[in-house]
Design goal:
Helices cover 49% and strands 10% of the residues. By secondary structure, the chain is an alpha+beta fold. The chain binds a DNA duplex through helix 6, helix 9, helix 12 and helix 13.
DNA sequence: TTCCAGGCTGCCT
DNA sequence: AGGCAGCCTGGA
């Protein structure tokens, strides 16, 4: 048996952390091998001491997908120096922003609204298994691609609700239809200016500002895109407790604070905070100890910090 | 059991 | 412009 091609990343790389950092939701691990699909291609990857072994799949496609060309040492040289960003870098060193296919990235993040990662993963795998094209077998298990827009558009809403999509079912259907009927100009999303691309993303049903930025960061590779989710909003509360958290001003603030590769900082912070404070109440406890108490807790959380 | 999770949409001021 | 309720489901 010929040895697998070995890819050498530019700077640090952690395959496991990258594939498990909330960018993609369908890769599975067994015996040190990560198995999944990139578009319609089976990928089996293993991290060795010298690099990344591509045991199944096109090495060039794998290197592109894993963004092994991103010069992380150079990126770390200009990393923000505030305590949270430094802590995030210490824990997430080697995580890369992947280059995902546009449609499956879009569809996956439409289904992610108000869902925990475990559930997003379950939905993603169910959609692939039930409706995606099989791209190969690994360890006697079939691996599936994400179903195409044209195929998803033909499914009844009840079928999407059956995999647990809930109110997101009609949104995903409408998005699939919009893609299948060429109502979305993907050239603008991929090659337009930031503003043009964002506006085109917002035409997609079920896509708001947060998901649009996920698309720009994880599929288009725009490192200046900053998805602001609940975790990043918590970071904002620490940095500017008197400011508004929901407006576009928040994004401008983060861009100024995190620099041109703000998307990378965002991803590290997201992963770091979720892993460190993901337990119920852990973030509230952290804030009581170290955080800034000036801002009153939101109505949503009030019962936690102010028991009646 | 209750709470809340990587939001979007439509409607309100 | 910005705030808010409602929406489905399942994990902790």
């Amino acid at each position: 048996m010929t040895p697998s091609p070995c890819l050498i990343p530019k700077g640090p790389f952690s395959l496991a952390e990258t594939l498990d950092s909330g960018q993609v939701f369908h890769f599975t691990e067994g015996h040190g091998e990560w198995v999944g699909a990139w578009d319609h291609q089976l990928l089996v990857l293993h991290q060795s001491l010298s690099g990344v072994e591509v045991r199944v799949g096109d090495p060039e496609a794998a290197a592109h997908f894993l963004a092994l060309d991103h010069d992380l040492d150079r990126l770390y040289a200009t990393w923000p120096t505030d305590p949270l960003s430094v802590g995030a870098l210490a824990q997430c060193r080697g995580i890369r922003i992947l280059r995902q296919p546009l449609w499956e990235c879009t569809a996956t993040f439409i289904t992610s609204a108000q869902k925990q990662v475990a559930h997003i993963r379950a939905i993603s795998l169910a959609l692939r298994t039930r409706h995606g094209r099989m791209v190969g077998l690994w360890d006697a298990q079939p691996i599936h691609a994400y179903p195409s827009p044209a195929l998803l558009a033909t499914l009844p809403e009840s079928e999407l609700r059956a995999v647990g999509l809930g109110y997101r079912a009609p949104l995903l259907l409408a998005a699939a239809r919009a893609f299948a009927e060429d109502q979305i100009d993907t050239r603008i999303i991929l090659n337009g200016t930031k503003e043009e691309a964002l506006a085109e993303c917002l035409k997609i049903p079920g896509v708001g500002v947060k998901v649009a930025n996920c698309i720009l960061l994880f599929a288009v590779g725009r490192m200046d895109a900053i998805p602001i989710d609940v975790w990043i909003r918590r970071v904002l509360e620490q940095y500017r407790p008197q400011g508004r958290q929901r407006t576009t001003g928040a994004e401008a603030f983060l861009r100024g604070k995190f620099g041109p590769h703000a998307g990378y900082v965002q991803q590290y912070l997201y992963h770091y905070l979720r892993k460190t404070f993901g337990r119920r109440g852990a973030w509230e406890a952290f804030k009581l100890g170290h955080g800034n108490p000036r801002r009153a807790p939101s109505r949503r959380n009030r019962s936690i910090t102010e028991p009646t």
